[in-house]
Amino acid sequence: MSVFLDLWHAFWGVVCWPAPKPSTSQPPNAAHQSAETSDYRVAVFGAGGVGKSSIVQRFVNGTFSDNYVPTIEDTYRQVISCNQKNVCTLQITDTTGSHQFPAMQRLSISKGHAFILVYAVTSRQSLEELGPIVKMLMEVKGSQLSEAPIMLVGNKKDESQKREVSTETGQKLSGRWGTGFIETSAKNNENVTELFQTLLSMEKKRQLALTMEDPEAKNGKKKKCSVM
C-alpha cells in the first residue's frame, strides 16, 4: 500500500506541480523604453491656419495640401544623425492651434527638447498669438529654456501680395525672444529643410544633423543619412 501511495504522490507531483522554468524574455516594454531614450522631441506651435501641419508634412513626407484641416495633435517621426556615428528619432509634435487645450500644450512643452513657433506673414494677429506661447514656454521650462533650440518661423512667404508682417519685424522679435529666425513657404518647399537643419544645429547637448558624415570620406565629401 505504501508503495502505491509513493507512486501516486510521485505521479501527481510531476504532473501538477512542475518546477518553474527560468524566464529569459525581457519585460514587454523594455525595448520600447530603450528606444524612447534616443528620441529628440520637437514641438511645433502656432495659431490655426498658419501652416504648421503643412511645414511638418512637407518635411517628413514631401507633400503639400491646400485643404485646411484643424489639428488637435499629430506626431511624426524621422531618422536623423546623432553624434555623427549614431542615429536618433526626430519626433515632431504638431500641436493644436486652439486655445482650448492649454494642458496639451503644456505637456508638449514639458516633454520637448526644441520648439518651432510658426506665424503666417499674411497675418499680424498670428504673430501676436505667439506671445502667450512664449510666456508658457518660460513658465514650464524655466531656466532650462535658455538651453532649448527655438526657431521663429514666418510661413507663407510665397503670398507676398498679402503680407502683413515684414521680414524685419520677424527678425526684431526673434532677437527680443532669443530665437533663431527663418521665413518659409511650405507650398513651394522653400526653406523647410533649412528650418530643421538650423534647429538641430542649435542643440548643444547632442550633435544632431539631417545628414550623416562618412568617416572614410575624403576631401570633405559627405553621404546622406537614410530617411524613413
UniProtKB/TrEMBL annotation:
Residues 1-16 form the signal peptide. SUPFAM superfamilies: P-loop containing nucleoside triphosphate hydrolases (SSF52540). One of its GO terms (molecular function) is GTP binding. Keywords: Cell membrane, GTP-binding, Lipoprotein, Membrane, Methylation, Nucleotide-binding, Prenylation, Signal. SMART domains: RAB, RAS, RHO. Its main location: membrane. This is GTP-binding protein Di-Ras2.
